Amino acid sequence: MKVSDFVELVRDNEELRSKNIYAGQHGVLLARIDLSDEWFVRFLDDNNYGAYAVAKVKAKDLIFSSEYPDEWLPEFMEQLNDPEIYSHTELKPAKFKEHDWVVLTKDKPEYEKKGVRKGMVGCVMCEYAIRYKWNVIFCDENSWHDIAEICVHEDDLEIVE
After folding, report:
1. 42 in Cβ contact with 50 (< 8 Å)
2. C-alpha span between 107 and 52 (Å, rounded)
3. Which spans in 18-152 are helix H?
């Protein structure tokens, strides 16, 4: 295996589980740790596209999946040089799931432009977020007709109890 290879975690451990990284998750090899059989791996979050966590993993706990596409390598190398890449150390559990009823807890101009205000109720329409934003359809409470379908940051939503 080499830097930039896609891998799958075949065995997890308590440290990885504490970071919400489990067997079956996929990642990309970032760097081999000198004089060891360990790698830094950027694990991708299946519930939140664009989110990731970097963790140390023993080579024996990984299997090769595929090579990184050549056309993506320049962007990958640029990301490798960003010191921030190693600051993402755990995956957040998914805050919502598809068809959860949620309430908007904050007013923001981008929501108001679509006619959505704090206190409005909506339904999550996807099983994953993109960079912590969930696709939500908000309805008129009196007629239950759709008002807007927008992406809302998860920090601006709460589950309707």
Report:
1. no
2. 28
3. 73-80, 109-112
Contact 62, 42 (CB under 8 A): no
Spatial separation of the C-alpha atoms in residues 133 and 64, rounded to whole Å: 31
pTM, full prediction:
0.76
Alpha carbons 83 and 130: distance in angstroms, whole number: 23
How far is residue 49's CA from residue 52's CA, in Å, rounded to a whole number? Answer: 8
* Burial class, 96, CB count within 10 angstroms (exposed 0-12 / middle 13-18 / buried 19+): buried
Pairing status of strand 133-139 against strand 146-153: antiparallel
Query: Which amino acid is present at 58?
Result: K
| pLDDT single digits (tens) 54-99 | 999 999 999 999 998 989 888 888 888 888 999 999 998 889 999 9
Q: What is the DSSP letter of 33?
A: P
Q: What is the pLDDT of residues 26-53, one digit of tens each?
A: 999 999 998 889 999 999 998 888 889 9
Cα 44 from Cα 37, distance rounded (Å): 21
